[in-house]
């Protein structure tokens, strides 16, 4: 014998789905921007108002502001456009050292009603320092019988942006 769903069972199930979708819409994904290091002051990172679903009037009326978790205020919001802009040049090496990733967490505070949004700004490395070798000249002796495409290891170079770099020199032998 099978049990049939009554009116009350359907009502509870409908109520459950209603609450599920209501809660689903209140869950926000994290906003993340990516910029190269050393951008000029006033450079636009992204339109934070649009990305958070706010109108331009909300920025001023609800007192939208950005607070840095790092202590330094690298970013601000242009209230007229809703854009997140760079306050000062960011030196990735000074901020994150030799770390592979450099992410600045920010809190966006919106009042009336109070809302907090966490955003991240990834600072990408710009290779602004040339690598250097200990010796300026390298002499490589290559035999006539060397096969085309052979690689010869060189000493490691030091790059202030990424640390020690291992180098290989490829021979450019051509057959005639």
From TrEMBL:
Query: Which SUPFAM superfamilies does the entry mention?
Result: Cadherin-like
Q: Name one Pfam family in it.
A: Cadherin_2
Alphabetical GO CC annotations of the entry are: plasma membrane
Give the way it sits in the membrane: Single-pass membrane protein
Q: Where is the signal peptide?
A: 1-29
**GO terms assigned for molecular function:** calcium ion binding
Q: Name one GO biological process term.
A: anatomical structure morphogenesis
Q: Which CDD domains match?
A: Cadherin_repeat
Residue stretches making up the Cadherin domain: 27-133
Cellular localization per UniProt = Membrane
Q: Which keywords fit this entry according to its UniProt record?
A: Calcium, Cell adhesion, Glycoprotein, Membrane, Repeat, Signal, Transmembrane, Transmembrane helix
Whether Membrane counts among this entry's keywords is yes
Protein name stated in the entry: Cadherin domain-containing protein
* Organism expressing this protein natively: Seriola lalandi dorsalis
């Amino acid at each position: 014998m099978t049990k049939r769903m009554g009116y009350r069972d359907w009502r509870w199930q409908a109520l459950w789905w209603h609450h599920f979708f209501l809660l689903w819409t209140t869950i926000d994904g994290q906003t993340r921007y990516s910029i190269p290091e050393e951008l000029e002051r006033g450079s636009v990172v992204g339109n934070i108002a649009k990305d958070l679903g706010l109108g331009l009037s909300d920025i001023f009326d609800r007192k939208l502001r950005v607070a840095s978790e790092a202590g330094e205020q690298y970013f601000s919001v242009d209230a007229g456009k809703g854009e997140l802009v760079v306050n000062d040049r960011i030196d990735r090496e000074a901020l994150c050292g030799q770390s592979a990733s450099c992410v600045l967490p920010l809190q966006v505070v919106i009042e009336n009603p109070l809302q907090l949004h966490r955003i991240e700004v990834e600072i990408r490395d710009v290779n602004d320092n040339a690598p250097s070798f200990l010796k300026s000249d390298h002499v490589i002796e290559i035999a006539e019988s060397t096969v085309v495409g052979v690689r010869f290891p060189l000493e490691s170079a030091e790059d202030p942006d990424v640390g020690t770099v291992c180098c290989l020199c490829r021979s450019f032998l051509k057959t005639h």
